[in-house]
C-alpha cells in the first residue's frame, strides 16, 4: 500500500525559500500526478501544484511565480520549493497522489500526514 | 479560474439525520468533482470521485450527485464518526484543482 511522508524544516525565515520533500513508499512512484496542497491554520485547502511522472508541472496561478515542484524518480521522491515566503505561507503542507491517469480526474487518494511549516523570524 | 462555492459553511445535526451539502461551480465542470472528509488534525480522505463514485471502503451512507455546476453530498443517516469538515474539489480542463471552502459538520 502506497504511503507518502513529508519532510523538511518546520521553521523558515521570511523572504527565504521553503523546501519540502515527499517520499513515496510501499510501491514505485508510478505513472501518476503528484501534488502539493496546503492548509493555513483554521482555513481551507489550497492546491499548490503537481509534477507528472514525465517531469511536466502545473501550478496554481496565484502561486506560480514563487513555486517549483520537481521529482527524483531514483529516490521515489518529489519536492516543493516556495520562494520569498511571508507569514501568509504558514500552513500545513500535504503531498498527495492524483488519480487522473486512472480515470478519476483530479482525485487525491493517498495523502501524507502533513508538515506544519511556520514562517517567522 | 473556476470558483467553488460550498454551502452551508457549517451545520449542526442529530444522529440519524439526513445531511446535505452543496457545491456550486462557477463554470460547467461536467462531473469532474470530488468530495473529501477531513477530521481534526488529520489529512483529508477521498470519499467520492467523479461526482458520484463512492471510493472503496467508504460507507454507503455517503452519496454524491450532480453534474455541470451543481453538486451535492448527502449523508443519509448521520453517525458520530461523521464529525468532520467536508470539501468539494474540482478538476478543470487546464488541469488545475480548486477546493470549496469547506462545510463543518457538528453533531
What does this structure look like?
The complex is a heterodimer of chains A (about 120) and B (about 110). With about 120 residues, chain A is an all-beta fold. Chain A is built from no helices and eleven strands. Chain A has strands at about 5, 10, 20-25, 35-40, 45-50, 55-60, 65-70, 75-80, 90-100, 110, 115-120. Chain A starts with a strand and ends with a strand. The mean pLDDT of chain A is about 95. With about 110 residues, chain B is mostly beta strands. Chain B is about 0% helix and about 50% strand. Chain B is built from no helices and eleven strands. Chain B has strands at about 5, 10, 20-25, 35-40, 45-50, 55, 60-65, 70-75, 85-90, 95-100, 105. In chain B, strands 2, 4, 5, 6, 9, 10 and 11 form a seven-stranded mixed β-sheet that branches. In chain B, strands 1-3-8-7 form a four-stranded antiparallel β-sheet, with no helix packed on it. Chain B is globular and about 40 Å long. The interface of A and B includes residues 45, 105, 109 and 112 of A.
Mean pLDDT of chain B, nearest integer? 95
Assembly category: heterodimer
Biggest interface: A-B, 24 and 26 residues
Beta strand count of chain B: 11
- Give helix and strand order of chain A, one letter per element, not per position: EEEEEEEEEEE
Q: What gross morphology of chain B would you assign?
A: globular
Q: How widely separated are the two ends of chain B?
A: 34 Å
Instruction: Give the helix/strand class of chain A.
Output: mainly beta
Task: Put the structure in a nutshell.
Helix content of chain A is about 0%, strand content about 50%.
List the helices and strands and how they pair.
The complex is a heterodimer of chains A (121) and B (107).
Chain A: E1 3-7, E2 11-12, E3 18-25, E4 33-39, E5 45-52, E6 57-59, E7 67-72, E8 77-82, E9 91-98, E10 108-111, E11 115-119
Parallel strand pairs in A: 2-11
Antiparallel strand pairs in A: 1-3, 3-8, 4-5, 4-9, 5-6, 7-8, 9-10, 9-11
Chain B: E1 4-7, E2 10-12, E3 19-25, E4 33-38, E5 45-49, E6 53-54, E7 62-67, E8 70-75, E9 84-91, E10 97-99, E11 103-106
Parallel strand pairs in B: 2-11
Antiparallel strand pairs in B: 1-3, 3-8, 4-5, 4-9, 5-6, 7-8, 9-10, 9-11
